[in-house]
Amino acid sequence: MVIRSQSSAAGVLALLQEPDTVFKQHALKGLIPLSILTSEFILRESLYESDDLPKAARHNAALLASKVYYFLGEYDEALSFALGAGSAFQAEARAHGAGEYVETVISNAIDRYVTLRTEEPSGSSTKIDARLQAIIESIFDRCIEEGEYRQAIGIALESHRLDVVNRIYDLTHDVSLLSYTMEAVLDTGFSLSYRDQVLNFLLPLFPPPTSLSKSPHIHALARLLALAYQFAFDLVEGGAREFLQGVKADLPEGKEETQDIYDKLRKILDGQESVKLYLEFLKRNNKVDMLILKNTKVSILMVDFKCH
Q: Which of 28, 93, 98, 160 has the fewest Cβ atoms within 10 Å of its own Cβ atom?
């Protein structure tokens, strides 16, 4: 049976009133590119839940509802119906030049996923809609297939998906991506506990620096060490003595190659390095004429001697 294409929106909408499901399926396909805003749309939402239509037709109905809500500015509703659109939305997303609609829905999907992931203390995905999870996984897969590793890492960091970072590194063995991940987590406003979690996750993945190779990640590791020293100086400047002693006592002894680093941190926490640097600063910026200072000192001593 060949169905004539409808040239007007009214004709396509009229097909939705037909009892034959073939006409309804054809109408839904015709309405998707039109995304018509009409008062009759409220009645069309029920087609998404209709058992009389095949699965593909219900997906088309959900996609149509999602597009209408998108044009109405109801982005949460647009995302909800896009999740129900299944294969229809996936086909729309894969189409060349998918456009602003798909970008907006995907952006909202990422935002909702990040919110749900960060609200879970353990990062559990038990409360996350399986359809939303599928969309996010497809985004990760597409980024990895297209070589957009940094974009995938950015989403993974925000959604606390360190397994994706590990997957990318296992695939590429690119140390620069580990450096990028570390820089991103340090430069973004993540919580201290999450930063600590990410850094502890990344550290074993970094290959040890050697003198035989250029070790391109040495800059990232050196920055991390510099941050540790700076943090220790900040603690000395504003921390109570008892607190500093507690931090110092909690520092590990370190292995042979790291013992000097921990010893340096202990000296900083004792205040020794701060005093040393402060004296060096005063000496370096001293503008006093030493001869005048010496003569003044001698004169004061002579006056004091005469007074006695």
A: 98
